[in-house]
Each structure stands twice: as structure tokens, then as C-alpha cells.
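Dock calcium ion; give full complex structure.
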Amino acid sequence: MKRVLAAAVLWIVLSGWAHAQDKLRVLVETDIGGDADDQASLVRFLLYTNEWDVEGIIADRSAQAFHKDPVRNHLGLPVKDGWELAQAYVKAYGDVHHHLVKHSPAYPSFEFLRRRTVPGHNGVEDGVRLIVAAADKDDPRPIWYGNWGSNSGAVSNLRRALDKVKKERSAKEYVAFAAKFRIVTLDGPGPTYQGHDDQIVLHVETGYPTMDGGRWYHRLRPLTERAGGFDVVRDVKKDHGPLGALYTTPKEGDSWTFIYLIPNGLSDPAQPAWGGWAGRYGPRGPDPDNKNGPKGPQFFWANERDSWNGTTHRDSTALRWAVALQNDFKARLDWCVSDHFEKANHEPAPHCQGDASRKVLRLTAAAGKPLPLSAAGSTDPDGHRLKYRWFVYPEPGSYAGQARIRDANSRDAVLEEPADAAGKTLHIILEATDNGEPPLTRYRRIVVTGK
Ligand SMILES: [Ca+2]
Ligand SMILES: [Ca+2]
């Protein structure tokens, strides 16, 4: 037990150190206080705040809009607007924080998040100020702006910040300001940055297009609610502390926006077409409903299909990872009520070709020759045994044929680089799953270019 504990401490220190430098900066705007699913998304979001540098949480629903929404469910909390409701969730996070830090010391303090949770309804400048201050920091990293909705009559705080900077600063400064943001939203084209379309570098739209008459936003529940035996009452709401108890509904339509940003080694947020836990996104063509919407290759939405389990379907782009996603959520809810590290499970850290980071690797391989693949050095902070699976993820690659991996279920495997793959890319995924409860999975991706 001592050895496992020492390994765990070392893992925590090293992983905290290794990932501090390349954490994503994340800023969220939520219309919490309307449809109760923002509350559920906020529960999940708060449990991943150790993985990012959270710049802020902006609640944009006013007291006036708060009392009109027909699908609200405030769980009896004595709150009068979206900001107070968001604060109640941050407070519940604060109540379990002393447990969470036993499992990852990177969780920000309650006070840190409380200060950065601000109101942003029309006429209130706190959200706009927070955005401007975040962008003005001397920090080269972009800010990932997750808009969970500003349809309560509020104008998105980012749009207001862009308007303000455009008006008050030079053209050059405005362009530099706008270039700081990457948008992940679900509200369709525009509301987050209308009037500034030309300046937005990347927009990943997790709400559209529609499928079977419903937005992609509505797919999260059917794809995840029971994945791997997940049970929302048993695994979240009951016996998992005050934060889990505030979970409202598995609809969680807004959650794709930040699931997209979870650094699990599988995805690269700058590459929407590569796929990950939030599905796989493709460039958006002309939208017949919005001829004035943003154009160009910087706008991606959930229009892609994966072949998986014998079917080719849009659902497969997210369904193929759903069990791992929900097990991960489950483990973090266990953390909320576990006062010692060894009382809950923690994710493995797969190494790939000797590299211990979570970064996507890029390799070249001689066409027709074997390329050795290795997960040697992989660790698990609980001392768990790891199960490895290497596979080709065909859709994001440019090679159209079949590529074979030998010993695909071993730590060390071999890619048979096809003879006709020169100049083409193959995406190789390493999936490492531990034998803890629930089993947890992390990944590595290698983009192999044939030469
Ligand atoms: Ca929302
Ligand atoms: Ca583990």
C-alpha cells in the first residue's frame, strides 16, 4: 500500500507539473436558470476544473427572465437570477473541494472560482470586464469560449466585449483581441460573435446540424445516459455529496462544449475533424436557413459519420467513447465523497513511444515497412493493471485503405504501414484502460505520415 501511495504522490506531482504549462484556458457563459440542463452541465464542468485554467463562469440570465422560464427546476434553492444559481453550484463545489484535492491538487479553490463566477445579463458589465481582462493578460494561449446559451434575451458577453474593444481600441488591437478566442457553442451561427465573424479563428458548433428533427445538442442524453451501466441516481445524485445532489437532468445539452476540451490524450481541440469524446466535427457548408452566417473552413459542426460496431452513423462519433466518458464522470463523483486517494479510482497515464505527455505525436513511416508502437512506461497511480488496445481511426486520416496492426492488444504493437500510403496519414489510437472501479481510460494518438 505504501508503494502505491508513493507512486500516487509522485504521479500527482509529475502530472501536475507536466500539464500546468499546456493547460487550456477556458471561459464559460451560461444561461443557467432556464432549462435545468445547464445546472447538470455545471456539475460535470466543475468536476473537470482541475484540467484547465478556468478564466471564468458568466451567468447571463436576469432575474426577469429567471421567473418566466417554464422548464426551470431550481431544486428549491433560494436564488433570484442565473448568477445566484451558478454561485449555489460553486458553493456546493466548495463543500466537496477538501475531498477533490485528495485526488487532484490541481482543483482550484472555492474562493478562486467564486470570484470568477460573475453575472452577465444585459446592462451588467461584470462578464464583459472579465473577458477583456482575461484577453489582456500577458499569456499567449488562446481562450476557449464555451457559450452554453444566451437565448434568454441576453446578448452574449463575448459579443459585447468584441463590440466594446472594436469601438474603444485601434483596428490592430481589435483584431489581436478577437484572435484570442476559440468558440465552442451550441446556439447555431452567430449569437456569440455576431458582427465579428471575419475575425473569429475557430468556431466548433456542438448544437447542430439537426438529426431526426432534433439538434445534435439533444444527442448527449440518448448516447450517454446508460452507457456502461451508468445510473444517474445511483452514480450522481445519491450518496455523492452536495454537488452531485444538485444534478438535475441527463439532458446536459451544453456539456459537449467542454467535453470537447477534456485533455484525455485522444483529441486536439484545434482539430475538430480528428474526433474525441464530444464526437467528430466537419467543416460546415452553406446553411439554407442562414445565408448571412459565418463562412469558411474555420466553422465546424457535428456533421461527421463514423463506421463503428457495424454501422456508419453520426451517433457513432460520440457513442464509441461514451462508456469511457461516463466512467470518468462516475469516478469524479466518487472523489467528491472519498477522503483518501486510495478510496477511489484515478485515470492511467499511457506513455507512447517513450513520451509521457498527453500530446498527439506525429511520426513518419516508410511505406510497406513495419513501424513499432510502444506504450512502455505507462503508469497508473493506483497500481492498476492496464489493458492496451491499438487501433486505426480511419475517418480522420487521409489513407483510404485498410492498415493492419499486429499485437493490437499488447503494450507493444506493430503497424504494418501500407505500401501505398506514401504521402497519406493514418491516425493510430492507443487506448489504455485500468482494472479499477469504475475502469478508467486514457489515450494517445499518433498521426503517421507515409513516406
Ligand atoms: Ca444552456
Ligand atoms: Ca487507476
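Observed: The longest helix spans residues 82-103.
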